[in-house]
Amino acid sequence: MTLQKNNIKERSKDIFVFDTNIFLTGIDFNLIEGLIYTTPTIIEEIKVKKYINRNRNILNKIHVAIESKKLLIKTPSIGYIQEIEEKSKLTGDFKVLSDPDKKLIALTLELKETLNKNVILFTNDYTMENLCSELKLSFSPLDKEGIKSKIIWEVYCPYCKDVYKAEDLNKICDICGLKLKRRPKK
Fold first, then answer.
1. How would CATH label the architecture of 5-140?
2. Domain spans of the chain?
3. Which of 130, 124, 59 is nearest to 94 (CA)?
């Protein structure tokens, strides 16, 4: 389920979970009513040395939001991370999602199941949106279109056409030696 981006200001009883790309838009936390969550790994992605000077203003906003308890940093429970890893193998997204992506989706699932509130993951990542769609988690992109429909991916050899497990993406085919790719499952 996607939501219109202008609704973020009007949904004060919801819990928002932010991905790195949402923070990097420079979003003003004061415009959002309701709590915002993210994981420590997402904050670490913003602190990357290569972009630290460019992201300094964003990091300052994040620090103020944490201090004012507007932004909560939480690590998801191991059980939820494992559930996300298993589901991502079923959708074929396992190797495409980073560990921070998986943890953020796990946090969204955990908050949805443990709090009595609507939880919405804000991300501009199509692969994360695809897995959220499979898990029936609410998500919304910011400043772009979201996915149109859920896709189940399969990993295959482009020459032999043999199908492999999702976690084999980018490995080498046992038969012909080509790099494995993914395609929508038929």
1. 3-Layer(aba) Sandwich (3.40)
2. 5-140, 153-184
3. 130
